[in-house]
Specification:
The chain is globular and about 55 Å long. It has 10 helices and 10 strands. It has a domain at 96-165. The chain is α/β, with parallel strands linked by helices. Strand 1 and strand 2 (16-26) form a beta hairpin. It has a 6-stranded mixed β-sheet, sandwiched between helices. A 4-stranded antiparallel β-sheet has the order 2-1-4-5, covered by helices on one side. Bound molecules: adenosine-5'-diphosphate (ADP) and magnesium ion.
Length: 268
């Protein structure tokens, strides 16, 4: 059975269609990328998958998450799925963090709620969750979000998202807001955790090079529709849709420019 099965998904804001007739599936443990320019409907699609669309937007079609229908279900019915089944990491880590609560308590909360950890087991769980995202420093647990760097905050958001041991992680441009020098570390971390835990990954980005590194298969979105789908290698080597060709050509041009620029040498 698919972990995530989206069929004929459309999302409207009033009469305006933001996403039209989108279909794809993601098997357990599979890594699927969604690529497309800003405004192409990537975030709307990923929010719909967890039933997190704002009230102004309405979805039709079907989204089955681990066999459970999401479209049209009340929030109360979906909440138990968020955590053990699927979790999302956003572009801006602050959206996931409570500014007034120490980081350790924010990680402890889902460990207690979903895994029943308390007392010394809970303290060990928080330490292990921070170590998993390469933040082993005791001080991080006592810090408030504003005391951390952007990269550290995103690592904490990942630790919170993974606390309930979800089988699917949705990562919506998880490194886009980060300084380029810390992007690579966060991507490596996600790669390692997804592999270690055999999680499914829906990885969303506007950057083909980043997506190609993280996933096995890609869907390409433009103006709210899926225009192409296939294995990463096939998309990169023989893009069929004109828009995909533009994406591949501009990624190649950037690569060539970096190769030609001696200042960029050695950083890649
Ligand atoms: N809450 C909303 N109300 C109205 N339109 C929205 C809302 N959220 C997103 N949109 C529109 O939906 C389209 C797709 O947005 P989005 O999924 O965020 O794009 P992407 O993530 O690919 O950059 C855009 O035209 C955006 O302006
Ligand atoms: Mg987006």
């Amino acid at each position: 059975m698919s972990l995530l099965e989206v069929s004929g998904l459309s999302v409207h804001a009033g009469a305006r269609a933001l996403v039209r007739d989108v279909s794809f599936t993601l098997a357990p443990g599979e890594r699927l990328g969604v690529i497309g320019e800003s405004g192409s409907g990537k975030s709307v699609t990923s929010l719909a998958a967890l039933g997190l669309l704002p009230d102004a937007l309405s979805a039709s079609g079907s989204i089955r998450l681990d066999g459970h229908e999401i479209v049209g279900r009340p929030d109360a019915a979906l909440r138990p799925l968020r955590g053990p089944v699927a979790q999302i990491v956003f572009q801006e880590p602050l959206t996931a963090l409570d500014p007034l609560m120490r980081v350790g308590r924010q990680i402890a909360e889902p460990l207690t709620r979903h895994r029943g950890l308390r007392g010394s087991a809970l303290r060990a769980g928080v330490a292990a969750a921070l170590a998993d995202v390469a933040l082993p420093d005791e001080r991080i647990a006592r810090a408030f979000p504003y005391e951390l760097s952007g990269g550290q905050r995103q690592r904490v958001a990942i630790a919170i998202a993974l606390a309930a041991r979800p089988r699917l992680l949705i990562a919506d441009e998880p490194t886009t807001a980060l300084d380029v020098t810390v992007q690579d570390g966060v991507l490596s971390l996600l790669e390692r955790l997804v592999a270690e835990r055999d999680m499914g990954l829906l990885f969303i980005s506007h950057d083909l090079a980043v997506v190609a590194r993280m996933v096995e298969r890609i869907i390409v979105m433009q103006d709210g529709v899926v225009v192409e789908e296939g294995p990463v290698m096939q998309i990169v080597r023989e893009p069929r849709h004109p828009y995909t060709r533009t994406l591949v050509d501009s990624a190649r041009a950037l690569d060539a420019a970096l190769d030609a620029d001696p200042r960029a040498g050695g950083t890649r």
